[in-house]
Specification:
The protein is α/β, with parallel strands linked by helices. 43% of the residues lie in helices and 13% in strands. It folds into two domains: 3-20 and 97-224, Rossmann fold, CATH 3.40.50; 21-92, DNA polymerase, domain 1 (Orthogonal Bundle), CATH 1.10.150. The protein starts with 7 loop residues before the first strand and ends with a helix.
Amino acid sequence: MYKKNITTLIFDLDGTLIDTGRDIANAMNLTLSHYNCPQIKEDRCIELVGDGIIKLVSRAFGEVKHNDINYKFDSEFLDPAVDLYRQIYHEHMFDTTKPYSGTVEVLTSLKNNKLAVISNKDYKYTLEILQYFKLDQYFQIILGGDSLEYKKPHPEPLLHVMEKLNSSPEETMMIGDTDKDIRSGKAANVTTCAALYGMRSEEELKLHQPDYFIDDISKLLTIIYLF
């Protein structure tokens, strides 16, 4: 029996299904080193993640060079820096990255549901990571941050998935570890579930009032199933 008739589940990738933080931070620091810039602490780098690669690179360089994550770099500097980060990240994206414990079991248990991934990470990397861990087989739709005109927290990616899967907001849940996931879910009028084991603190996520919290991905099943 389903709780609230949730039969469509949309997952974020980084910090929700896959633990990618260390490799993201390492690639960022290798990029900074190339420009003879100071390193950024892993925890701080992870705090800058969530709006795609261009934003991450800009924020990291802004912080270490100007103490301002919103510093506006011109494209002459930023474009090559972003390209270098993409190259380095692609070379190191599986150094330590792995699915969270319980991810495979949860997806297997939910295989008769409609499942999708919506990430703000570029589609290329999103798909490659899912394929590497053989998780792509579970999802009917996979979207990256460059798949549509808008990315999370805009509702467009969720609305697109629901339209393609013929799902209503009432039967759909968005599961993610950042405010972008919760905000996009609320904007699309779906049930929201915050993953506390990911890249954001419980205090930050509580500000956006998700419908549910989980501190382990396995706990998702206790929400989806009434018994």
